[in-house]
Amino acid sequence: MTDGANILEVKGLNKYFGPTHANVDIDFTIKRGEIKGLIGENGSGKSTLISQIAGIYRYDSGSMTLNGEPYAPHSPKDANREKIAMVMQELGVVGTLPAGVNVFLGRTQQFTKAGFVNLKEVYAAAEKIFTQWDLPMPPLHQLAEGMMVETRKMIELARALSIDPDLLLLDEITQSLSMNNRDRLYGLIGKLKGMGRSVLVITHDVDELIEITDTITVLRDGAVVGEADSRRTTADEIKRMMVGRSMSGEYYREDQAPDYREKVMLTVRDMAVPGEIEDVSFELHEGEILGFCGLSDSGIHSVGKAVYGLSRLSSGSVRMEYADKDVKTAEQALATGAAYVPKDRDSEALMIHASVLDNICLPSVEELEGKVMYLAPGKLRALTNEMVEKFSVRTTGVHQTMDALSGGNKQKINLGRWLAKDLKLLILDCPTRGVDVGVKAYIYSLMKEAKKNGIATLLISDELTEVLGMADRLMVMKDGRITKVIRRDENFTEQSVIGAMI
Q1: Counted domains in the chain
Q2: How many whole angstroms separate alpha carbon 498 and alpha carbon 294?
Q3: Is residue 158 domain-resident?
Q4: Confidence of residue 263 (pLDDT cuts 50, 70, 90)
Q5: CA 211 to chain centroid
Q6: By CB count within 10 A, which of 9, 342, 403, 404 is most buried?
């Protein structure tokens, strides 16, 4: 229950990035013990607003008060001193440091004596945080580099909780998590509320936001356009406020039966990656969407990497039947007309500090080569402009850097640049992570079009509704193995899948 007093009040907040007015006269409050939701389309200003509260950006005008006192943090350290912590949308761990050290990143001086950090004390303190808040414990001595997105997110969450925050800011964390760890997070949010602490949650999952929050603030084009009581609103009402109109049309497939061609495009036999997956076998057909789902330690994300040659197999084989070739490396997979869109787009897919043009053109370099392997600038610009227009990417120009784009526009480029090629096989790992309802619907329409064109799609997702909505068949995994295969029919339900996952 909230006590009625405001912990944070924002009045007339404005933020500019050059000519872009990212936040426009923002007014809103968070009460003590309140779970506040913040939602809007990609580019609506959510992350900018929450970043100002966390001290990452400074606001240009307006004011904030915290517990009735003026609040104008110059850095995240300032915010931490005021008991405000944030888990960012993009990954915020240092890969070259151990997981335990990342929990106290920037605050290891408390474990320092005579200029030396006592790592034993660091790891003991980190273990205490994970245990206290019932978070899954990563190997604390191991470097964070190479850990799964989900594991790194839990490290960031532990770091935020290590300051014992009165206000916790969560920017798109839930879509990085599998079902069991989402349940853990929901329990944590409830625990904080019971302690009289406040949480500000950003997520594009409207149903989830309504379920876990007390109130919801809706942003559009940088401004607040609506407030809602979570107990008295509906998903349709929130979506209408987000986009300024009623949303119609079907996200997912409307057919209720498998629909693909007989031709086998991919054959995987007895595939194993030590410590991740074993004895994984399946076939993927022309025009089929084959889904993979499971809990956090099930191995589904390892399947995509292994099929594309990004992990070394200890046994088994991957054969691209359409090219009559066994594939062991990503270079070989690419040469056959296969594409891989990973879950962690910023670290594993996109050149985040390079331009829109460079990112779109990279997979098509061979097709764009002219005489003596010369890349003609005109061809590069033409392809980029065509893709930007086709996929409705919001950008100031082809030379804008990727890190200046919203998550939805990044993902449009991440997926669209592959669909510019003549593909035979498409591997998608959580393709709608961190995108709004409009972009999500658009990505599903691209998947339907790819299916119609005969492209074989491997869809790996932590979202049960996503795989149930789009897949012809569903491979349920547990402990690195396929435990059940479910076909698209009347028994294609969340209950049947969850029963096989647990």
Answers
A1: 3
A2: 8
A3: yes
A4: very high
A5: 20
A6: 342
